[in-house]
Each structure stands twice: as C-alpha cells, then as structure tokens.
Amino acid sequence: MADTSAEIEALALGAMRAWVAGDVKAMKKLTARDFMFMVGTLPPQLLDRPSFIAAMERGFACTKFAFREVFVRQHGKSAWFIAGAELELRLGGKVWTGPFLLSALWRRGSIARNWNLSDMSLARLEEGDRLADAVRGLQLWKQA
Fold it and tell me: What values do phi and psi take at 3, rounded to 5?
C-alpha cells in the first residue's frame, strides 16, 4: 500500500501541475475517457473530460496549489486520493482562493495497467475548527 500511496500522490501532483501549466496534452494522458469533474458550487456542477479540457483552454485555471493533509486508500483496482489543499482558481474575472477539499478516484487500466484519473471533485472548506473538533470527537479509534 505504501508504494500505491506514493504513486497516487505523485500522479495527483502531476495532474495539478498540468492544470497549473495549462498542459492539455498531459491532462488528457492522465484522465480516463469517462472522466468527470464535480465542482462544489451551489448547485454543484459537473464537467466531463471534453468540457474540462476545453475549460482549461478557455481560462478555467488553477494558478497555485499546495497539498496539506493527504490520504490515499486503495480498493482493488481503484484508489481514492483525498487532500486538503490551498488553491487559487480563476474563471474569467473571478478568483477563488483558500482551503479546498480535493477528492479523486484513480483506476488502474486492465490493459496498460497504468493509473487514470476517473473522477475528481473540488469543494471549498469552511474556516474554523469547531466542526472538525466535533467530528474528531466521534472517532472511536482515538478514544481511550
């Protein structure tokens, strides 16, 4: 699992770097043909692979990113990547900065055996730690 975690984290870094660089070719190589991207807006919006690639070309940009907490959990031929991240996103004249939750499903191909980004979701996180503290208090494995 440790090797898978490092591999998935490296791929996630590569995907974010491709987005920051506007590298459509790299993003196409990393994403599955049925890739879907859910953006946590009200209401949530979905972009399929062609829409996301076109959006990258039309100015939906991630201009800065830094992962904070990173979790990878493998389930057979799939792996979930979850990270708290500091992001700067731009779309037209609008800029979103701050803490986000990035969730991505990576699937291993059956022929080429490489990992492809299948699904990704992005949602802005709420500031403050009162809710986080309350949820942490529910974790049975941390209670004495």
Answer: -65, -40
- What is the rounded average pLDDT for all residues in the chain? 91
Query: Token match 């309350």: residue?
Result: 134
Which pLDDT does position 2 carry in this prediction?
A: 56
Long-range interactions of 4-7: CB distance < 8 A, separation 24+: 4/72, 4/74, 4/79, 5/72, 5/74, 7/115
Rounded to two decimals, the pTM is 0.87
**Residue 62 token pair:** 């991630």
The residues with which 46 forms a beta bridge, in sequence order, are 38
CB distance 66 to 16 below 8 Å: no
Q: What angle do CA 11, 121, 21 make, to 5 degrees?
A: 50
Domains and CATH numbers, the chain: 2-142 (3.10.450.50)
- What Å distances lie between residue 56 and 12, 61, 69, 93, 118, CA to CA? 17, 6, 26, 15, 17
